[in-house]
Amino acid sequence: MTFVEGPVTVTVPATSANLGPGYDSLGLALDLRDELTGEVVPGGTLAVIVEGAGEGTVPLDESHLVVRSMRAAFEIIGKQPAGLRLHCRNRIPHARGLGSSSAAIIGGLVLARALVAGGELILDDDTLFQKAAEIEGHPDNVAPAFHGGFTIAGDDDGFFAVRTAVDPRVSVVVFVPATGVETKAARGLLPETVPHSDAAADAGRTALLVAALSDAPEHLHRATRDFLHQEYRRPAMPESLALVDELRADGVAAIVSGAGPTVLAFSSGVESAETSKLTARCPEGWTCHALSVDMDGVRIL
């Protein structure tokens, strides 16, 4: 096998996991993309450039998550490059519950595979997904980042993901606070056990949410009611949960995106009057994005 000549560019979407009741299982790809360009170069040097989110804060060496993911792919393929140049143009905010780490992992794996002629013959899609979920630790964000759309994922004798339909009327507005919350810290607030009644209620809402996103968005408000994780995380993100409470009181299907602290609200089209009203409610100091559901997943340009 040989490396391809010249640079290769991939783009990867942001993702939102959980979507309220679908804890560690449901994920949605969003049309906010990171762009990664990689090139194999002579010599033993590694050059990493980061623009946008993470610029000036993420490492620029072998510990960079994209680089680590690329190395994992090269190891599976059995061919490590002598030198590597990586340019990351990041639009997905870090530590905000929008899947920035999953985008880095999926992007790095797919980029490395594309840099090896015939790499997909050894690192097929299923192997790549399994490695991505292994690096991330769970599949709920890497599944929509890879496949696009709305996915149901889990770990049952190996990681799995199923993509299902999304009603074309569905869009989202994300409200992103100025400061982030690390996923590990947010997970640390969750109890070891929950009441049986809460688990049963969440199971019912999760099933309803799959139907609501597929072709019954009028049920999204009821379907996104969570009993398992959001309230426990309130101490780490009180402003986010206050915004969720405020929006839901007004009939908006609002949730914490992933581990937070971003708040996601479902709407009825990026250009709709409903979306305009939602974006006008962005708290001072936060940023707001009206986004469509991304149906493509990771792409090679």
What does this entry look like structurally?
The chain has helices at 65-77, 100-114, 119-122, 125-136, 142-147, 183-187, 196-215, 220-223, 238-249, 273-279, and strands spanning 8-18, 22-41, 46-52, 83-90, 150-155, 159-164, 171-176, 254-256, 263-267, 287-292, 299-300. The chain is an alpha+beta fold. Strands 1, 2, 3, 4, 5, 6 and 11 form a seven-stranded mixed β-sheet that branches. Strands 8-9-7-10 form a four-stranded antiparallel β-sheet, covered by helices on one side. Helix 1 (65-77) packs parallel to helix 2 and helix 2 (100-114) runs antiparallel to helix 4. The longest helix has 20 residues, at 196-215. It is globular. The mean pLDDT is 95.
Poorly predicted tracts of residues? none
Elements, N to C (H/E):
EEEHEHHHHEEEHHHHEEHEE
Summed up, the helix count is 10
Largest β sheet strand count, sense and barrel closure: 7 strands, mixed
Strand composition percent = 25-35%
Rg from Cα: 19 Å
Q: Helicity, in percent? A: 25-40%
**Average pLDDT over all residues:** 95
The global form is globular
Looking at how many chains there are and whether they match, the oligomeric state comes to single chain
How many beta-strand segments? 11
Termini gap: 22 Å
Class computed from helices, strands and strand pairing: alpha+beta
List the main descriptive attributes of the protein structure presented here.
301 residues; alpha+beta; seven-stranded mixed sheet; four-stranded antiparallel sheet; 10 helices
